Amino acid sequence: MNETTPHPPVVLIIDDEVQIRRLLRVALEGSGYRVFDAATGQEGLIEAAQRRPDAVVLDLGLPDMDGVTVLQRLREWSQVPVLVLSVREGEDDKVSALDNGADDFVTKPFSTAEFLARLRVARRRGAPMADNAVFRSGRLEVDLSSRQVLVQGKEIKMTPTEYSLLRLLVRNAGKVVTHRQILKEVWGPNYGEQTHYLRVYIGHLREKLEVNPSRPELLVTEAGVGYRLLAA
Question: Of 81, 141, 166, 217, which has the fewest beta carbons less than 10 angstroms from its beta carbon?
C-alpha cells in the first residue's frame, strides 16, 4: 500500500436494530467510510474508546441505557461529531440530545442522501471555528478576527448583542443550536428561558443578512428547537 494514501474516516454506529446497522454500513462504506458498530450503549462506549472514530451515529432507544446517557458519557472525554438517529420525533427529545452535545438529529425513517449530507456537515464543522477564521456562506462573510460582517461585499453594522449572536451561530455553522444554548451563551445563565429576547434579535439579524427576511435562506428555524446557520 502507498504510505501516502489517507486512511478512510471511521464511523461508529450505536443502534440495536440490525437492519438499520446494515443499511447504514452499506451507505457509509459506499461513500468511503470505514464502519464499526455496536448494539448497546455500553458496547458503543467501549468501541468509541478503542476505535476513536471520526464520527458517531447514535440511536436514542438502546436496550441498556438511554442514548442521551451515552452522549453525556461520551462528552466527558470526547468532542467527536455525533449524529443522533431516532424514531422519536418530539421536540423535547431533540432539544435534550442537542443540549447534551449532539451535532445534529435525524428522525427515522430517513433519506440516505440526507443522512450522508448531514454527516458530512457534522464532520466538517468538527470543533468550533477558530477566532481568526473567516466564514463564508452564500452572500455572507464574517471575519472573526476583525469582527467584520459583509453581505455581498458591503459591510453591515451590528450591535454588540447582534454580533455575539451571529458569532455563536458562525462558530456552530451547519449545526442546530438550541434556544437554551443561545440564550445562555449570549445573554447569560439566568436567561435560559427568555425566548422573546431571541426572537427579536433573530429578526434583527435576518433583516440585515437575508434577501427576504420573511423567507430566510441562511438563518433557518428548527421549529421548537433552535436555529441553524447554513454552511456553504
Answer: 217
Which pTM was predicted?
A: 0.69
**pLDDT for 33:** 95
Phi-psi region of 144 (alpha: psi -120 to 50; beta: other; left: phi over 0): alpha
Q: Do the Cβ atoms of 6 and 33 come closer than 8 Å?
A: no
Write out pLDDT tens, residues 192-222.
Answer: 677 788 899 999 999 999 999 999 999 999 8
Query: Taking Cα atoms as reference points, which of 16, 36, 146 lies closest to residue 87?
Result: 16
Query: What are the two backbone dihedrals, phi and then psi, of residue 154, each rounded to the nearest 5 degrees?
Result: -100, 130
Sign (positive or negative) of CA dihedral 210, 104, 129, 164: positive
Whether 70 and 153 share a structural domain? no
Sheet containing 140-143: give its strands across.
134-137, 140-143, 148-151, 154-155
Judgement on whether residues 121 and 143 belong to the same structural domain of the protein:
no
| CATH number assigned to the domain comprising residue 139 | 1.10.10.10
